[in-house]
C-alpha cells in the first residue's frame, strides 16, 4: 500500500525545504469504518535534510505504510490518513 508524500515550494524564489526523517510519523490512520488503526502520535520533528528547491519544485518519497501497520489480510481495504 504505497503512499506518496510531496513537499512543494509554492513560492516565487528558491527555498530550503525541511524533509522529515520519518514521513509517516504523527499520522492518524483510520479504516473504512472510521475506527483508528494507528493513533496519531507526537512527531519528533527530526529533519533528514534541507535541500534548496527551485520555485515550483518539490521533494518527496513513496512509503509502503502497510508494512508499518502490519494489517492482516482479512482487514485490508480503504484507509483514511490524517
3D structure, described in words:
- It is a single chain.
- This protein is mainly β.
- The chain has one domain (2-81).
- It contains one helix and nine strands, in the order ββββββββαβ.
- It has one helix at 66-69, and strands spanning 2-8, 15-16, 19-20, 29-31, 36-38, 47-49, 52-53, 58-64, 79-81.
- A three-stranded antiparallel β-sheet has the order 5-4-9, with no helix packed on it. A two-stranded antiparallel sheet has the order 1-8. Strands 2-7 form a two-stranded antiparallel sheet.
- The longest helix is centred in the C-terminal third of the chain and has 4 residues, at 66-69.
- The chain is elongated, with a radius of gyration of 15 Å.
In the residues, how many domains can be counted? 1
Spatial order of strands in the largest sheet: 5-4-9
Let me know the largest β-sheet.
Answer: 3 strands, antiparallel
Structural class: mainly beta
Portion in helices: under 10%
Beta-strand segment tally: 9
Number of helices: 1
Helix-strand pattern? EEEEEEEEHE
Shape: elongated
Low-confidence stretches: none
Rg, Å, rounded: 15 Å
Estimate what percentage of residues fall within beta strands.
Answer: 35-45%
Task: Please state the average pLDDT score.
Answer: 84
Task: For the record, give the distance between the C-alpha atoms at the N and C termini, rounded to a whole number.
Answer: 16 Å
Amino acid at each position: 500500500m504505497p503512499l506518496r508524500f510531496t513537499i512543494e515550494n509554492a513560492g516565487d524564489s528558491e527555498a530550503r525545504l525541511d524533509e522529515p526523517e520519518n514521513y509517516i510519523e504523527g499520522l492518524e490512520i483510520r479504516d473504512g469504518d472510521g475506527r483508528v488503526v494507528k493513533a496519531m502520535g507526537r512527531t519528533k520533528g527530526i529533519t533528514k535534510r534541507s535541500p534548496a528547491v527551485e520555485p515550483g519544485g518539490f521533494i518527496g518519497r513513496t512509503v509502503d505504510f502497510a508494512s508499518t501497520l502490519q494489517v492482516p489480510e482479512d482487514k485490508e481495504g480503504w484507509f483514511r490518513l490524517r
